[in-house]
Amino acid sequence: MKRLLSLLPLIVAVALPFLPVQACGPDFFPDVFVRNLHPDHPRDYAAGKLGVLRSTYPRLDLTVAYRYLIGGALTAPEQTAYKPTESLAENEQELQAEYVKESANSTQYAEPPGPADQWLKARAQYAPPVPDLHLVREYDMIYTEGYFLAGYYENCQADAFRAAVATLNSRAKTWGGHSAELADWIKGQDAVFSNCGGNAPENSYPRDRPVIHPSSPATAPTSAASLLRQDRAYQIAATEFYSGQLDSARASFQAIAEDATSPWRGVARYLVARSLVREAFLSAKNGPDDVMASFNPDLMKQAQHELESMRGEHLPGISPHSVERLLNLVRLRTEPEARLRELSTALAGPKADPNYAQDLEDFNWYLNGKLDSLAIREDTYVDAFHFHVDRPQNDYRPLTLEQKLPGFNKAFNDVAALRSTSPVIDWLVTFQSPSVLAKKHAIAEWKRAGSTPWLVAAIMKASSSDSEAPDLIDAAGKTPSASPAWLTVTYHRERLLIEMGKSEEAATEISADMPVIEQKGSESAVNLFTGLRMHAAKDLNEALASAPRKILERTSEEQASLDECLYVMKDPKRRYDCKKDNRSVEFSEDAAAVFNNEMPLATLAQSAQSSALPPSLRQSVAMMTWVRSVLLKNEPIAAKMLPQLPQELQKQAGPGVGFHPLITILRNPGLRPYLDDGVQRSESYDFVESYSDNWWCGNWATSFSEVGAPVRSLSATFLSTEARETGGKENAALLALGSAEEYLGSQVVDYSRAHPSDPDVPEALYLTLRAIRYGCYRETGSEEDKASLNRVTTVALEVGAMMRQRYPANPWTKKAAPFVWPVKKSE
Question: Which one-letter DSSP state was computed for residue 712?
Fold first, then answer.
């Protein structure tokens, strides 16, 4: 469970004067069983093996799927052009891996050479070396409100260096490698590239920008060769362009374009338009929250006119593709609706798109800019609901679906005009939106058109209570297994059957389909269908056989805790009972939810003794069940579970459910009354983890993750109604106990008052203070958390007073010195 961090109140900070407060730490993500943020295998996905489509896939990936859903396919070049997205967790892991690699051997780490490096290498054959090039120009971005921030752009791009290399080699052949003309040309080109970077004006920030000294090429003498004079005219125009003198640059390029003898006339004609585009961006004012850069519409229209006039012309040195590409960039701003319709048609096919990579990038860029700040996706960040949810200022609890629905509905309505632009845009927005309006629209479009994309969207959003559910189930059943949509519609068909109470039918179909599901090669799909099979199981052992799932990515704090424990154990003086986790399966979120929320203690005990689970997972269930039985004071269940605990825990706990089992829980911060989804914290049960993932929070049943599609709630059909009710009551009783520090601390205080001479009391008091120090950090916004903090503070103060007054010379009191509260003046 992901925990939210906050600072303890001042009174706790006073109690722990020597310990630094960890205000922030590394990012942790839930362990992955179903990839909600991108396809499992991008290359297979690009070839039409779509798996079970998720509404949280980025629009880029869903655009690829749409081509297949309407009966088309990507050509081989289009498949190669598709660049899949990565999840935030993967990006973070990649960055950390690169950092570790660079830190381990910084002398060997270097970026691969780029076009600028190739220019410097080519230049070195004919001239002495020059300082490194700076390719980024920084400038002050002026906002409409009058303030400014520093902006930047890549001033000299790859094509400029490639052209310089080609020209250098050509001029060396024409004039000779050691000629005065070539030396003069190189000097002029150095001056051009000295303007790629930019100095910061004195009144702008940041002030640590590199100091760069640009220059301008000298005009070639009239006696110079004609080619050198023409090259120099182009170099001067390029210098004006890179230095931001765009009016002068445009005039210079125009003059070159009108010189019929200049080898640069075609490129110069194109650069007249590029100068207009750059000035259109740089001369406009942005608002601080503008998603896309503002531009001067008059200058952008002028650039469009220039580019359109070049269509059909043969311009030496510039390809028609380059002209068309820049024109498309311009038209996406001057004529967005028309250009979006063109992009939609090209991307949807079925005709192959020769510009697929750029079209997909432009399409995705525009839609992301318009939609990402709105409540469109299920995993939209909470900030998007700021105006739709009324709650206290500092209340950071996750919003419920009911709280989010008004925001989802409004966002779907607000983008109605954008949705009407093309069928693919309408489908993308509708498929991703969890709003009630999106569901109605998807079902209506499916009923109207009967098309596969709308069947996918409609059945994914449907519930068993919808009148259209039987028809959707029937349509999904008629979808051939060769269809790219088959896995998606079949998954939701089985889900709806289970929701409608037809679990036996669903289980039979899943068992029959599983060989085909596995053959299609999507691990996420296999895990999803295995989850349905667990919920449709007719008895406990069948359910347990489907509870473990293949873990696809280990990114949780529980995994980090295990890794930290193993690392610390490299010191022979530090010994813990944690072992490297080599198992390939764990409990995913939906499986853990059944154990945590629905199973009564008696069923949990059966599960912990069932051979249907692998031994390591049986032990995890046994440890969780034992903790529950101790907290709920169920001695028979505790006795059943005790032999299945690790040997060290058995020695510490002993029989019963009284004081000594409670001390055992306090000694071992990985013990908790629930299963984690993914790697179990019990794998490093006796290790104090560094980021407060120790024991349990009072609201442990709440998932704090805001990333990924939510798990649909399916009840475990193998449980009787009575068993499910008993499990629910036990779960509620556990939650009512509060956090580990609250409950265990109060129990220790009560026992210590009644049994002051018990030799184990001083240790229990120390362990209570340790648990408060390293236990759950709480939010400070909700009233529940404030009340919990008050209760924990009361326990801590009383424990500290007991230790000082009753056991001042005890070794545990001395060991607890860093934790003990100062004496109040009134004492």
Answer: P
User: Chain-centre distance of CA 702, in angstroms?
Assistant: 20
Q: CA 205, 207, 211, 213 torsion: positive or negative?
A: positive
- CA distance linking residue 188 with residue 207, whole number of Å: 30
User: Which helix or strand (DSSP H or E) is residue 549 part of?
Assistant: strand 548-550
Contact call for residues 264 and 258 (beta carbons, < 8 A): no
Helix (H, G, I), strand (E, B) or coil at 705: coil
Q: Is the dihedral of CA 99, 103, 108, 110 positive or negative?
A: positive
Question: How far apart are alpha carbons 663 and 654 in whole angstroms?
Answer: 11
Other beta carbons within 10 angstroms of residue 561's beta carbon come to 27
Residue 91 has pLDDT above 70, yes or no: no
Query: What is the 3-state secondary structure of 98-167?
Result: HHHHHHHCHHHCCCCCCHHHHHHHHHCCCCCCCCCCCCEEEEEEEECCCCEEEEEEECCCHHHHHHHHHH
Burial class (CB in 10 A: 0-12, 13-18, 19+), 165: middle
DSSP class of 21? P
How far apart CA 206 and CA 243 sit, in angstroms, is: 20
What is the C-alpha R_g of the chain? 33
Q: What is the pLDDT, as a whole number, of residue 579? A: 85
CA-wise closest residue to 595 among 578, 616, 617: 617
CB-based contact 800:821 (threshold 8 Å): yes
- pTM for the model stands at 0.84
Q: Give, in order, the Cα–Cα distances in Å from 324 to each of 80, 309, 311, 318, 367.
A: 22, 11, 8, 11, 21
Nearest to 685 by CA among 604, 631, 623, 771: 623
Length of the chain: 827
**C-beta separation of 211 from 199 below 8 A:** yes
Angle in degrees, CA 649, 652, 653, rounded to 5: 85
CA atoms within 13 A on the CB side of 171: 28
User: Cβ(543)–Cβ(718) under 8 Å?
Assistant: yes
23-70, pLDDT tens digit by residue? 345 778 899 999 998 999 999 999 999 999 999 999 999 999 999 999
CA 151, 156, 160 angle in degrees (round to 5)? 160
φ, ψ (nearest 5 deg) of residue 127: -150, 155
CB atoms within 10 A of CB 31: 23
Q: Are 532 and 495 in contact (CB under 8 A)?
A: yes
